[in-house]
Design brief:
This protein is α/β, with parallel strands linked by helices and 219 residues long. The protein has 2 domains: 2-17 and 88-218, 3-Layer(aba) Sandwich (Rossmann fold), CATH 3.40.50.1000; 22-82. The protein is built from 9 helices and 6 strands, in the order βααααβαβαβαβαβα. The chain has helices spanning 22-32, 48-58, 65-82, 94-101, 116-126, 144-159, 173-181, 196-201, 215-218, and strands spanning 2-7, 107-111, 135-136, 163-170, 185-189, 206-208. A 6-stranded parallel beta sheet has the order 3-2-1-4-5-6. Helix 8 (196-201) links the parallel strand 5 (185-189) and strand 6 (206-208). The longest helix is centred in the middle third of the chain and has 18 residues, at 65-82. The radius of gyration is 17 Å and the shape is globular. The two termini are 15 Å apart.
């Protein structure tokens, strides 16, 4: 048997800053003919669908499947436009850690609010997409807990084995709550949306600032 290790993306694998979600932001702006579609919206650890619905609500627009489809078309075009830039960069020593994990018997997967297409673009850019055969994504459920439930179901079906332990690695307090929702251990990395002090308040199983701090746990 082996461990099942779920990774978040933004702030965990990919360095999070004001440019990380530019394709999503610009797609929303273009769809609504505005330059402030994301004003006062915190998208950390949330599903892209949930954020989209809040954007529409803030602009008193009713959600429709046609609007969502239109947004996805614009979003994919924006992802293509940005894929040759440096807006997506590896966070700390994440790539080295993931590459080493991929050579072990441990099983890797994702739990992210990102739509799968956004996850693919970002992780291909930083060179680790190939190490994640499955995940729970933003189109799987509106809530983070729902995404985690789907991810766990997918992992059990795909790997078809029992796991010694299940871990979630993420940078937010919602990642901590998500791990506990699926009875997983939580490894909080203080490199993203929440500070080390904020994460520490919720007593994660492990609290790190670099992945090498937990290499003895898995390698």
């Amino acid at each position: 048997m082996s461990d099942l290790i779920f990774f978040d993306i933004n702030g965990t694998i990919v360095k999070r800053d004001e440019r990380t979600d530019l394709p999503y932001i610009e797609a929303a702006n273009e769809l609504l003919y505005t330059d402030n579609a994301m004003k006062d919206i915190n998208n950390a650890a949330r599903s892209d669908m949930d954020v989209f619905r809040e954007i529409l609500m803030n602009h008193t627009i009713e959600y429709t499947e046609a609007l969502w489809t239109n947004f996805l078309e614009i979003y994919e075009r924006k992802l293509e436009e940005y894929k040759s830039t440096d807006i997506w960069r590896i966070n700390k020593d994440a790539k080295k850690f993931i590459e080493k994990l991929a050579k072990t018997d441990h099983k890797l997967a994702l739990i992210t609010g990102e739509l799968e297409i956004g996850a693919r673009f970002k992780l291909e850019k930083v060179g680790v997409w190939q190490h994640f055969p499955l995940g729970g994504f933003g189109e799987d459920n509106v809530s983070r807990f729902g995404i985690a439930d789907v991810a766990l179901q997918k992992a059990k079906k795909y790997y078809n084995e029992s796991f010694d332990n299940i871990y979630v690695i993420g940078d937010t307090t919602l990642d901590i709550a998500t791990a506990r929702h699926i009875d997983a251990k939580i490894i909080s990395i203080a490199t993203g949306a929440n500070t080390k002090k904020e994460l520490e308040y919720y007593k994660p199983d492990y609290l790190i600032t670099r992945f090498r701090k937990i290499k003895k746990l898995f390698l």
